[in-house]
Amino acid sequence: MTSICDFAATTLARAIGSGELSSRDAVEAHLARIADRDPQLAAFVTVDAEGARRAAQTCDAAPAPVGPLHGVPVGIKDLTDTAGLATTYGSLLFRDHLPAEDDLVVARLRRAGAVILGKTNTPEFGFGAVCTNKLCGPTRNPYDPSLTSGGSSGGSAVAVATGMVPLAHGTDFGGSVRTPASFCDVASIRPTPGRIPSPRRPLGWDMLATHGFLARAVDDLELALSVCAGGDVHDPLSTGVVNDDRPLAGRPRIAVTPDFGFAPVARDVRARFAAACEALARVGDIVPSSPDCGGAIETFRTLRAAHIANSYGELLRTRRDELTPTVIWNIEAGAKLSAEDYLNAERRRTTIYRSFRELFRRADFLVAPAASVFPWPNEVSDVTAIDGTALETPIDYLAVTFIVSLVGFPVLTLPVRREANEPPFGIQIIAPPGCESRLFAFGRMIENELGFSHRRPKLP
Q: Is position 156 annotated as part of the catalytic site?
């Protein structure tokens, strides 16, 4: 029998809005699912059952739907502020932190009628390959609980995959919605930087990190983005985003690359990606091609390290003993960089961005793997080698995703069709900035025609 917890967010919103189902029934069903499955999986740091019930009661008492997500339960990644609800950033330093205000993305979700069920798990400050911290975790993969769910939006990915919520918020710096989506067989969107404003971001022109969403279907991602998008005068990136919603003309041209010409990618991932490309050839014209990404690893390492050292350097100086080793390594990596190092990285980044732009003169989409490896055991904190070849740093396994962060193009992640004995695996579908509508339309097509869609995990 189909449970309320198996409904998509769009289906739930329609049913609650029409009165066929109450928000309270939806909330209670999802709270029961959390109570049943989260003790094994650790997707949530905090569950706000009473707050969710109050919000559901308000929705049910309203004379008309409050907004497009009226009464729909959602999860918020615990890196993002929620007014009066504990926001720990995955750190012991903030275990008692109660923000006075919602982050703008949370405020917009609430205004659209969403009911916040709780905060999903993340590594400390979002830095970590395994979704664990000194407060909670590891967040276990629902397809094999001995394996990682991925960092750093692993809590949101698992909550969505197991029906604890139909929709969850995430953030993405170097792949933090895309890697967990690939590992947990769900879909995700990392939009154009600025599409969802971050008016409190200290570095207003920083485009490496964005908000995003995870869901089991493309329509749910599009719905979530629609209620959270829109400019804010305090976010300079958001005022320059142009929405290009022109439909595709004819059969799509699909550029494909297993590695962007530089990223370390495991042999078994390459094999799965090749099979996915064969399927994509049924719906579009395949153009094996990649932008010129020379120097991308060094560029991302430099920019990421500089941003982290700037944001968290004071914590390292004053509270080092309370930080996880991963966070310490990340902060120290940027401590010795010079202004010249930073500007040279920006120069290389500009060249790579222009190469991406040139690629899209001959292709409508660029498709690549959404992860360079398959999930590994939770006890292994970092990916240090791929196919026996050592990586120089713990973040190099993210090269296949962080290249997209580097240039700021929107990317939709979808799970590929798989056999029952195969681990989950996803692809990134990349489009030019502002082309989210085109991404969603293409995603729906391959979801329907190729079966690139979520398959429910078989949990006891």
A: no
